[in-house]
Please model this.
Amino acid sequence: MKIDILTIFPEFFEPFLNTSKIKHAIQDGHVEIRCHQLRDYAVRKHGNIDDTPYGGGVGMLMQFPPFYEAIKSLKRVGTKVYLLSPQGKLFNQKAAQSLANETHIILLCGHYEGVDARVLALIDGEISIGDYVLTGGEIPAMIVTDAIVRLLPDVIHEQSSAEDSLSHGWLKYPQYTKPETYKGYTVPDILLSGHHENIAIWRKEASIKATLMKRKDLLKKIKMTDDEKKILENIKQQSK
Ligand SMILES: C[S@@+](CC[C@H](N)C(=O)[O-])C[C@H]1O[C@@H](n2cnc3c(N)ncnc32)[C@H](O)[C@@H]1O
Model:
């Protein structure tokens, strides 16, 4: 997969691209990520890419021509283009899974007061990472890229991403590692039993319980099996 990121701060991405799983995914050829300086596509002198809004108002807007030129130069057949924007569709695990199936995406990072609205005519969608306003699209682009890359084949253990919170709607069950006991804080006995079938049952219940307790809102969206419905009802009864 290829990801092109358009930004006026490509240096922002250096540590991100050179750390942990992203670095390895690039080195192992699972993904190609290129950051482009939007100023290189400026049509005005000195890489100038912003100006005041027509009709008046505070702040500066990023101009349309640099985005137009950059997209024209980078876009290929099948490329999907997204603008990071607080006005976009809220990003979630499902969206990450869908983007991970693309072969080439271009992420546009806004800054200042945002971008000239004509950019919307060139894109496939706007992506928001949450209902708050950030200074620029760089951190959102990193979040989207990170969420996508860890879903690409062989980047992390496939079972691990399949069991991650939200991948099937549910939050992940609680996990523990060594030591078994520390200052009186212990690990649930079942996880030390070596009985894989019982552990799987405990994890399923713990996952459903975590979702009910922490993110009740998710329950409406999950397509539950009859078994899961029964477990959920039991947990609700027990907590009454
Ligand atoms: C200060 S914001 C502009 C906000 C714009 N004036 C508005 O009210 O919609 C500058 C840039 O940060 C990025 N940005 C800010 N918040 C974001 C969010 N929640 N999700 C994705 N991108 C965001 C976008 O690229 C945006 O163009």
